[in-house]
Amino acid sequence: MNELICRPIGHLETPWATTSDCPRNGRQPDPPPVCRAVVAPEFRPGLASLDGFSHLILLYWLDRSRGGTQELVFTPPFDDTPRGIFATRAPHRPNPIGLSVVKLLGIEDGVLNVIYLDCVNGTPLLDIKPYLARTDSEPDAIMGWLATPRTRHATKEKR
Amino acid sequence: MNELICRPIGHLETPWATTSDCPRNGRQPDPPPVCRAVVAPEFRPGLASLDGFSHLILLYWLDRSRGGTQELVFTPPFDDTPRGIFATRAPHRPNPIGLSVVKLLGIEDGVLNVIYLDCVNGTPLLDIKPYLARTDSEPDAIMGWLATPRTRHATKEKR
């Protein structure tokens, strides 16, 4: 198999300088700060017709996650049971690709103003997809072990 | 910046041998066929605690997409207006990472039985994330230019 090599199409600008500054998820801050998805000039033609969508899916490379554990099973800081990495949204994944469903406020000169990001300032952007409610929205999805709020270390809770 | 290199954590087994066999999206087939996400043995510990979730987000590498156009702007087969690649879910993206929200039917021996996939048989699997309705579900999202069904080539329609 060929190597699977990603290249950044831009970067994300957020208020959070380090992973420990980040909120536990993008919906936690009230009000959520406006963040910027800056698309590199050579990729900007790909933004045509994007402005009519209210929500987007952003994929990005969690490049600050490598300092942490690489274990496939770990005990989240807000929990007391070991969980598989694929049953969490923790950043130290075998492929450290982050995903956020964001609300699009506007696009100007290759910069998307969005809310609901939760990642570190400067995170490399990999992809922008239009959010399609008919295939992406499952409002009644059952959240497994995450359905019950844990509070062991509420201030470090990371979802 | 370091190279951003992905490695497959497994592969997807679907009924579709080529991209032209694939449905336009995973919700189109009625009934949707049961597909398999086969996780490689070394990554199976990461599946712990995943079985309580009703829905998952699968990320995968669209390795068959390279034969097509690499244009950032193209006219979809069911449309008559050029659209930016980031305003579509087409597979020939700068980073060919596919995303499906799937329903989890069960897990056995490192194999996830799911419905709502739409990709080619053998597609490399990159990540499994639990679907969290509170951050991932936007049932009222506005779908921009995709809100109006196009029918230029209905049989080749690809969403």
Structural commentary:
Two copies of one chain form a homodimer. With 159 residues, chain A is mainly beta. The first copy, chain A, has one domain (10-133, 150-156): Beta Barrel (Elongation Factor Tu (Ef-tu), domain 3), CATH 2.40.30. Helix content of chain A is 3%, strand content 30%. The first copy, chain A, is built from one helix and nine strands; from the N terminus they run βββββββββα. In chain A, strand 5 (73-74) and strand 6 form a beta hairpin. The longest helix of chain A has 4 residues, at 133-136. Strand 1 (4-6) of chain A pairs antiparallel with strand 1 (4-6) of chain B, so a sheet runs across the interface.
Morphology of chain A = globular
Q: What is the name of the CATH superfamily of chain A?
A: YaeB-like
Domains counted in the coordinates of chain A: how many? 1
Radius of gyration of chain A: 16 Å
Quote the beta fraction of chain A.
Answer: 25-35%
Oligomer: homodimer
Query: Which two chains have the most extensive interface, and how many residues on each?
Result: A-B, 72 and 72 residues
Quote the average pLDDT of chain A.
Answer: 90
For the record, what CATH class of chain A applies?
Mainly Beta
The CATH architecture designation of chain A is Beta Barrel
**Strand/helix succession of chain A:** EEEEEEEEEH
Distance, first to last CA of chain A: 33 Å
Structural class of chain A: mainly beta
Main beta sheet strand tally, sense and closure of chain A: 6 strands, antiparallel, barrel
Which residues of chain A sit in consecutive blocks of at least 5 with pLDDT less than 50? 152-159
Number of strands of chain A: 9
Strand order of the largest sheet of chain A: 2-3-8-7-4-9
